Amino acid sequence: MPDAIEYMPYDKRIARLEEIAQRIVELLRKHTRPVELTVFLQEVAQTLRLAMSQVKYGLTYAKSSGRVTVDSAAMVALVP
User: Fold this and answer.
1) Which of 9, 35, 50, 75 has the CA that lies 20 to 30 A from 43?
2) CA dihedral sign of residues 48, 64, 56, 51
3) At what angle do helices 37-48 and 52-64 cross, to 10 degrees?
4) b/e string for 19-32 if b means 16 or more Cβ within 10 A?
5) How far apart are the C-alpha atoms of 51 and 34, rounded to whole Å?
6) Total count of domains within the chain
7) Which residues span the domain enclosing 70?
8) How far is 21 from 28, CA to CA, in rounded Å?
9) 62 CA to centre of own chain
10) Which pLDDT belongs to residue 23?
C-alpha cells in the first residue's frame, strides 16, 4: 500500500493530512448541526473515496489543528 499516509515522507504526509482535513471541514459545513461520528466518517469515506483509516487520520489532524471537535456523545462539529 504505497499511498498509505503512514508510509509517506513527513512533508508529503502533512500535506495529505491537510488536504483531507480541509475536505472534512468542507463536508461538515454542509450540516447545520453536529453529526454522529460514525455516520460522518462513512459519509466522508464514500464522498472522498478514501479508506476509513485515511479519513480517521484526517479527522485527527483536523481536531489537533482546532478546526473540528468530537464531544463525549461522539458528535462531530466545527469549532466556532
Assistant:
1) 9
2) positive
3) 120
4) ebbebbbebbeeee
5) 23
6) 1
7) 5-78
8) 10
9) 6
10) 97
